[in-house]
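4.2 Preliminary Data

To establish feasibility before requesting continued support, the project team ran the inverse folding procedure on a target of 353 residues. The structure was first converted into the token representation described in Section 3, and no sequence information of any kind was made available to the design step. The complete token record follows.
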């Protein structure tokens, strides 16, 4: 059965990569979903919080944005982060989803581990860690557009315990990611963007999705709903060091409307299936073959009165029987989501075999 915990998405990445832009676009397209934000600011600047507070987005109230401005989120888990999470989850109207924007040089690993703290472990789970990278900068061998600005911010941080090379910080952010967003892809040639995506994918854990983005514009159903349960899966999320901190002055000062022409989705309908386990294996094979980002829906299984719910993120496929069909037609309906150019006919043929 799916988790009843409140899902939380951790958004990490260096100064200027575009984390705030990704989050602002997410809020613009949240619909009626109630999303709460925790923003880890440097010092008392409060820049990102001010950008998002009062943003005029329907349903985004000021009290849905909480700021941690007393140090690096990965160094102040007990003092700041856990109490803030408790305040959120104990509200009468709890959020549907929590999004946590880390500061530019905060490590995601200690933050993810904090979700195992007994005060919050039974109430929230890490839906996924999204690492945003500056595509042109990384392709050019840098880790941020302005590495001097990153170092300057780091020198201002009185709580920094170690002087660590940016390459190691970058490696930690990458190793913890469930999704890597190659932002500013519009500033790169298509071949360069594809080459960088393939390089990052090859360096990542199996199942990590690498997705190009322009001005942080990604569909909500791609960013949220990963179901990673990252706090229970720390073994592969190695970190090279332990306490770091910096601010994030993301490229948040421009806001644009975007459509999602780079992505597509479609529905496949087919009759009952004979074997639930075999069908899940087929779905996983089709996802790998066609590089599908998400696949979700339900299936009718011969001889079973309950419908089989199916959720797939990358090659990971979760299934469970959720409820009787009742008056609904006994059929299989699946929504396929991926980057533009999916071979719909081939996917439909494979899933209908």
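Position-by-position output of the design step:
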């Amino acid at each position: 059965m799916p988790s009843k915990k409140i899902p939380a998405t951790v958004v990490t990445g260096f100064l200027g990569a575009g984390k705030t832009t990704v989050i602002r676009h997410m809020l613009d397209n949240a619909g009626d979903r109630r999303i709460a934000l925790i923003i880890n600011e440097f010092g008392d600047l409060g820049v990102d919080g001010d950008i998002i507070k009062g943003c005029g987005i329907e349903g985004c109230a000021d009290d849905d944005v909480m700021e941690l401005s007393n140090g690096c989120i990965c160094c102040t888990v007990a003092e700041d982060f856990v109490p803030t999470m408790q305040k959120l989850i104990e509200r009468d109207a709890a959020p549907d989803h929590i999004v946590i924007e880390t500061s530019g040089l905060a490590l995601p690993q200690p933050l993810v581990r904090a979700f195992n703290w007994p005060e919050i472990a039974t109430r929230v789970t890490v839906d996924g860690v999204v690492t945003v990278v500056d595509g042109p900068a990384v392709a050019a061998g840098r880790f941020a557009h302005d590495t001097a600005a990153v170092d300057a911010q780091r020198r201002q941080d009185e709580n920094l315990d170690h002087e660590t090379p940016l390459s190691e910080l970058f490696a930690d952010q990458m190793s913890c990611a469930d999704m890597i967003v190659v932002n500013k892809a519009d500033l790169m040639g298509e071949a360069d963007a594809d080459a960088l995506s393939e390089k990052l994918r090859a360096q990542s854990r199996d199942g990590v999705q690498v997705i190009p983005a322009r001005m942080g514009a990604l569909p909500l159903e791609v960013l949220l709903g990963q179901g990673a349960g990252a706090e229970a899966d720390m073994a592969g999320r190695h970190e090279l060091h332990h306490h770091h901190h910096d601010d994030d002055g993301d490229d948040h000062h421009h806001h644009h409307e975007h459509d999602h022409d780079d992505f597509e989705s479609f529905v496949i309908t087919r009759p009952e299936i004979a074997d639930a386990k075999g069908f899940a294996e087929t779905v996983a094979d089709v996802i790998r073959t066609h590089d599908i980002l998400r696949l979700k829906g339900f299936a009718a299984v011969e001889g079973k009165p309950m419908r089989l719910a199916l959720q797939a993120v990358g090659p990971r496929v979760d299934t469970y029987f959720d409820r009787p069909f009742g008056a609904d037609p006994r059929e299989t309906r699946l929504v396929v989501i991926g980057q533009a150019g999916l071979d719909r006919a081939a996917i439909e043929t494979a899933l209908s075999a």
